[in-house]
Amino acid sequence: MLFDQYQPEDFFDEMFASGSDVRPHYKAVGEALNDVSADEFRSRQTAVETAFMRGGVTFTVYSDSQGTERIFPFDCVPRVISAEEWDVVEKGLIQRLTALNLFLHDIYHEQKIIKDRVIPPQYLLSAKHFRREFMNFEVPKNVYVHICGSDLIRDRNGQYLVLEDNLRCPSGASYMLENRSALKRTFPELFQAAGVAPVDNYPTELLKVLQYCAPAKFRGTDAPNAVLLTPGVYNSAYFEHAFLARQMGIPIVEGRDLLVRDHKVFMRTTAGLVQVDVIYRRIDDDFLDPSVFRADSLLGVPGLVNAYRSGNVSLANSIGTGVADDKVVYYFVPKMIKYYLGEDPILPNVETYLASEPSDCSFILANLDKLVVKSANEAGGYGMLMGPWASKEEIESFRKMIEDNPRNFIAQNPISLSRHPTWCGDKFEGRHIDLRPYILCGEKTVVTPGGLTRVALRKGSLVVNSSQGGGSKDTWVLKD
Amino acid sequence: MSPPAREEYARHEQANVMLARVAGSLYWMSRYLERAENQARLIDVNLQLLLDFGDVSDELLKAHWLPMLRSSGDEEQFFKLYETADSESVTEFMTFRGENPNSLLSCISNARENARQVRDQISSEMWEVLNDAYLFIQGANSKQIWHEGASAFYDQIKRYSHLFQGITVSTFSRNEGFEFIQFGKYMERADQITRLLDIKYHILLPSASDVGGAVDTAQWHAVLRSASALEAYRRYYVADVFYKKVVEFLIFDGSFPRSLKFCCQEMDHLIELITDSSPEANKAPAVERFRLFLEKLSNLTVDDIFTQGLHEFLDSSQVEVGNIGGHLYNTYMYFPPVDLQAEIRFHQQQEQQQQ
């Protein structure tokens, strides 16, 4: 019924192989949803939104002077991934994060990958997030990136591609968990026949990772004291910080709650100062310690970096991981996989051009109206030029910026992202989606089966970011 | 360069640590919601009281509402926003105006904001009630609901507060955090009851001869209902509402959970729990002073109070309650912010010495 009018059109549709031909792993969901009337669907969709608002499952909109809280729009049609498909994705993500951790160790030590001329040195030494201060520093248990959120997309043929890696403070895991529990309440019947792998283990796994990475000097017999460091209640992701801290049962702290003495970190409690062993920080490097990095940061903790260097406290993620999610360094990840692991990448990159390579640069400048241009260090869909949809002025302003600072730009062919049936007021229509899975690296590397599927709710839009009209879906990985 | 003052290190094994900031937020969350409840009842009862008066002149309206503004210290702010004090303007001011730090909107927003700071510490159910209350009062149609039936509107606010307290009791672990929540609640309640009685004192001022008259009885009824105490009072005295008895009940009754004495006894018990009955804590001047006040509450009679002057007694009680609250807050819930610049210099210097 609801799908009778649905048109996959000329895109890779996650649910329909063609016309009305439902892919096998969507059969159960398709049948259950077809029994629902449009009115019924609408009222359940509204119920979910009310529940999110009541629960405060919201993010803060910066641009708005009132700091309005909004819900992250949620679409009730789940995105389904078959077990076989997921098997490849999971292997590919583990392979990628393993290589990235080896890369980070290498460039903060011997820099063999540079000496062997796999990556030209100028790219690394000029990377904005390269932290020279941490050369030859031993991070606890040799893990640099504990929490990784890599963005995956699927092209016209359904091939999964890595769009970017988020190795600093990837966010969104709380929405993965909240979306699941919301959909279970709203459409319990969808789950019955499907056999969906659970995601609720994520906080437990995250806590395990934090405890595993306790500093070398930690000698306690109890579990180490882990805390979550947040920029505070006005941060747009504060809901997530509070949510994860609550799920893990660890305190959420702000910079002002911590104090460094004798190279140790303490929190200020009702019973005096209590030592902290592991910090899951949701603050970028730059703001972490005003005595070392940005002195104007009011969010950080003076002395924290030194405590970290002294081996009295662990940070997740480590300092300086941003060098590996620089969009220029991204270009080299497939080469890293080959170099460190001797394997071919399971998940390919999107084909990318480097503005700093003269031949690529002239190609980019000649084709600005056909390419997607990104600045190397921006996230959240900012600092981007979508050539085919851009105005002449936007194109010219990017041309100038690229010519001035080629190191800061890359370009990619626009990918026709896969589409997914999505509720659009009174019926289902195809909307573009991506996928952000969460990979945790501690004693072993695990990928939570699922992740956050983001959907560009505006018709035709390819931008899935929540700040720019994106929503999300529950993401199912089917058990065998 | 010497480091900023050293605070005592607690042992690492200590489970269940609570950040001082968290304790402070729990305390304020609780205080603000209790304040909102008291405020809602006060407005509601006074709106209904006016119905008993029949025709009311502007002067009478002013005499009716002004003392309420005075008791919360909001008179000046009010006249910046309104020209006349009548039912509409005063209740709107006390309900919806963000410029009024004691309006229901401000109280509930502040309670919720404090809860948001400690979302990880309180149960989801507690958060949801506060968030519901907030969405209710700042929602687009809250003014319409208020216009259509003020009483139902204020009832709803009271229900949120009651719901919150019930949920807190049944979902919040009996740890330190619970003690701070309860302390905030009883402290606010003790403060509110003195203010409530003080409003009546203001009303009495112009015509002391009215005492015992019909209007006077209606006023004292209203006082009891504002403290949610009319039914309890009736059970206790099985008699007419007599002003001395009302004052006695609201100040000295040991079993009614909104009387000044009951609230102060609860606070005393919570102080013991929070300070772990440590000898040093008991010797703190503010604690000793509060114990003296409690003793006074046990020994005084209502006649003593009227001899001393009701207003003076209420005033000094407010000071006592505020004093012990301030002491607990400064000792357990608040750390003065570190001097960030001094900290930065200190650590940079330490760094250089190492190299």
TrEMBL record, chain A:
Signal peptide: none
InterPro entries in UniProt: ATP-dep_Glu-Cys_Ligase-2, CP_ATPgrasp_2, UCP005522
Gene3D superfamilies associated with the record: 3.30.1490.270, 3.40.50.11290
Annotated Circularly permuted ATP-grasp type domain residues: 78-456
Protein's name according to its UniProt entry: Circularly permuted ATP-grasp type 2 domain-containing protein
Organism of origin: Brevifollis gellanilyticus
UniProtKB/TrEMBL annotation, chain B:
DUF403 domain mapped to chain residues: 18-333
Source species, domain of life: Bacteria
InterPro entries in the cross-refs: ATP-dep_Glu-Cys_Ligase-2, DUF403
Protein name: DUF403 domain-containing protein
The organism's taxonomic lineage, starting at the top: Bacteria, Pseudomonadati, Verrucomicrobiota, Verrucomicrobiia, Verrucomicrobiales
